[in-house]
Write a structure and sequence with these properties.
360 residues; alpha+beta; five-stranded mixed β-sheet; 7 strands; 13% strand
């Protein structure tokens, strides 16, 4: 059984500048600049010669100049991106627009200067100057349209990320009280049977809550999530005694690996409350963590009583984990549940990005 959901975008930081361009050095930003440059070249040739007298050689020459201007402008804007973000919305737009026109002017001067040098009898200084001005005028309108498009696209992404951040925080706020509620039940169950053990549980829970309930970052290192999960299982061990056995098989998953906070702990909670606790003799919960190529695979395996059906709490936890994984790591991240005659297997699988994903 694989749970699938619609793709969502990564959350962003709340401190967003008024004017922000996408990254034009790579990816979709650079591709968009190249495509717009090529479309502009075709438009210039058609406007100048028409479709009937369309000259491919002129298109090649125009494309070379347009791509030269487009790539240099993208490089300049990418280099100055952080400084441009310090301006207001209007100021950043004007600076970006001015940089594009400046690049167009310089490239046009170089091209016309080369033509005048190699064929002075065919090009005068006056005609070359007018051609330079024509190039700048032609570039002015599409440059303004391109900047407006990039700005609106980036603003839309920021808005979607802000909305998703609110959703993730709401999910996180639902997980933590649920964790607290079950922990209080654990203490209540021990007070009557073993007050001394209940006191130790309260002390251990105070440290555990300090990490789980005051954690402000949505993404945490995987080692911290595993540490919290170990402490949680140790507390359950105090309550269930020999009925609960935890086996940890942690492979070499590398350094710098992140995971949404409180991702493994709810799965372990389900394994205990909907698996071990329902079996009189108890059983073993196996936690496996491995890195396969550039993906993290986490398996939680617990025994199940085939006569008892899992309740909705398990499916709600799966839905919550799936949504948060997709929010941070894209649609290739997923959580699977596999049911056999004797066991219940929950698998968390997500990619390790080349660079750390943004945190809300």
């Amino acid at each position: 059984m694989k749970i699938k959901f619609h793709p969502v975008l990564l959350p962003r930081s709340p401190n967003v500048p008024d004017f922000q361009l996408p990254d034009l050095c790579r990816g979709q930003g650079l591709l968009g600049v190249v495509v717009i440059g090529e479309l502009l070249s075709v438009l210039i040739v058609i406007a100048g010669q028409g479709l009937y007298d369309f000259d491919w050689r002129v298109l090649v020459q125009t494309s070379l100049l347009t791509l030269w201007i487009s790539l240099l402008s993208a490089l300049l804007l990418c280099t100055a991106r952080r400084r441009i973000a310090m301006f207001t919305s209007v100021g950043g737009a004007l600076v970006s627009y001015g940089l594009i026109l400046l690049v167009t002017l310089l490239c046009s001067v170089v091209v016309q200067g080369a033509r005048f040098y190699w064929a002075p009898d065919r090009h005068s200084l006056a005609s070359s100057a007018w051609v330079v001005l024509e190039y700048v005028a032609i570039a002015a309108i599409p440059a303004a349209m391109m900047l407006r498009y990039l700005y609106l696209q980036q603003s839309l992404q920021f808005q979607q990320r802000a909305e998703l951040e609110s959703r993730i925080q709401a999910m996180q706020s639902r997980i933590r009280p649920h964790f607290l509620f079950n922990s209080m039940n654990m203490i209540a169950s021990l007070i009557g049977s073993d007050p001394g053990k209940a006191e130790r549980v309260v002390e251990d829970l105070s440290d555990l809550f300090r990490h789980a309930l005051t954690e402000s970052q949505t993404l945490v290192p995987l080692r911290e999530e595993l540490s919290l999960s170990r402490r949680y299982m140790a507390l359950e061990k105090l309550r269930l005694g020999d009925r609960l056995r935890a086996v940890w098989e942690i492979g070499d998953y590398g350094s710098g690996v992140l995971i949404p906070s409180l991702t493994i702990q709810p799965v372990l909670e389900n394994a205990v409350y909907h698996g071990i606790q329902l079996i009189p003799e108890g059983g073993e919960v196996t936690i496996k963590v491995n890195r396969i190529n550039d993906r993290i695979v986490i398996d939680v395996i617990n025994p199940r009583n085939p006569r008892i059906q899992h309740n909705k709490g398990n499916r709600m936890a799966m839905h919550n984990i799936q949504t948060r994984l997709e929010a941070h790591f894209g649609t290739t991240a997923f959580v699977q549940a596999e049911v056999t005659d004797t066991s219940y297997i929950t698998r968390i699988n997500y990619p390790v990005p080349a660079q750390a994903p943004e945190q809300p």
